[in-house]
Structures are given as structure tokens and as C-alpha cells.
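Hi, here's the filled form for the chain we discussed.

Project: internal
Contact: R.S.
Residues: 285
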Amino acid sequence: MKVWRCARGNRTNDDGHPHGALRFARMPLDNQGRAIEFGRTADDYDRHRPGFPAAFRQRLLEKRWALPGQRALDLGTGTGTVALSLAECGLDVVGIDPSEELLARARQRASTAGLKIRFERATAEDTQEAEGSFDVVAAGQCWWWFDSDRALAEARRVLTAEGRLIIASFCYVPTPGSVAALTEQLILEFNPSWGMAGLTGIFESHVRDLDRAGFDEVESVSWVEPVVFTHEGWRGRMRACNGVGAVLGAEDTARFDASLAELLASRFPEPLRIPHRVFIATGRG
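And the returned structure, exactly as it came back:
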């Protein structure tokens, strides 16, 4: 069972002014009881973690899972990769996240892209948005950090009667002997209790969540695309991993990074082509 730490904080609007009542932001804990705080990795997260590929947007439009003019809520928006994708598809988007550090990057990304997206500090379990106000609720690369029962109930609350929940992931695939697999082995040397090594990027649990919450027309799709990294880029991507910079102290993170740099230099010439799997599970309310 997941455990969350509660941290009290003020919700603010896009210009940083107080908005609404005090709320409780829940942070997932790792197997040692340490808070997983991606805000600590905001610089690396923003610079080095790849967003969903263009084919993700294309699939949403082709399947009519997201349509121009619809209203969308992006849960756990992070630096805004899914929120920006939905806005680029022509949707009116709100993105929420408990980390103000990540939201600052998301706001900057939207501004640079010329996209009008409202970003708020809130959680998937308590969005603080109006009932029945969204046609689409999306969660990209974050569903496993939520209290799924509460997040499902909240998604149903804010969706319209025929609204759609989209749960998506974009994970590297650690095939045997690959740079991703050996990097995970290195993470386990520094963080032996890390529980997310060896994932294939196929999340049947997301489909089961939609089924048990009573969503209709539940379906899933997946495909693999390579992502090209430099050594520096892969090191930054892995410093931003939930098993590294989000939980380890600065000294251990630096030691991990130095070890990864040595591994890459000795075994894997640039550029690195690392397969990533897109997995989407979706259903209608």
C-alpha cells in the first residue's frame, strides 16, 4: 500500500497570489519512508526528461480521445508535457501538481510556446476544480504516485457525464544488457530498496483501475519509440529519477552521477538510442 506524507500549503494562481483555502498536498513515500519530491530535481527534470512524443498527440486526435475545444485537466502535470500536448491539440487546459518548483517550469514552457494554460498547485485526489467541468482528465507518467481510489473518484467528480479519463506513461525499456538496464543496476547499488526497476512500460493495473471505477469503453494502446540522449542528457534524466535525486541526498546523488558517467564512458558511445514505450489506458465516464 502506498503511504503519503501531508504537507500544508497555500494554493496560488498563475501570478503567485493566494487562491482558495489551505489544502493538504500528499507526497508518496519510498520503501524507506522517504518523501519522493520531484521538485528537488526540477532543473534536471525540465532539461533532461523527455516529454511524450508527437505520436502521442496524433493518437489522441485520431482516436478522438481528445478534441479541439474540449476542456482538459492534467493531473500531476510536472513540467507540463501533457498539458502542452493537449493545448497543442486545441484543448482548453488546466494543469495541477503539488510541486511549485515544477509548476514554475511548466508556466515558463507554456509562455515560451505561446500557449494559454492555467496551472494550479493541487493534487489528483483533491483537484479543487468544479464538479462536471472537464471533458478530459489526463495523467501522464504519474498515476502510480496517486492514491488511485481517491484519484479515480475525483476524476469522475470533475468529468462531464460522457467525459474521458486518459492514463498514459512514457517509460524507457530496460532490455537485458542495455544502458537502461545497467543504469537501473547502478541505482540499486545506491538505493537498494528502490522498487521500480525492470518495468516493461505495460501497466495492466491502469486498465483494471478504469474497469473497477466503472468507466465504459475501456481500451489501451502501446508502442515503442527510440529517444536519443547524449551522455550528459542521460545522466540528467537519471538524476531526475524517482529512485535518485527525488529521494537521495545531494552527496549520494553526486556519487551516483559520477558512477554513471564512468559506466557510460567505458561501455556506451554517444549518441544513446534508448527505446521508450508509450502506454495509454482510457475509458469514458
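Let me know if anything looks off before we file it.
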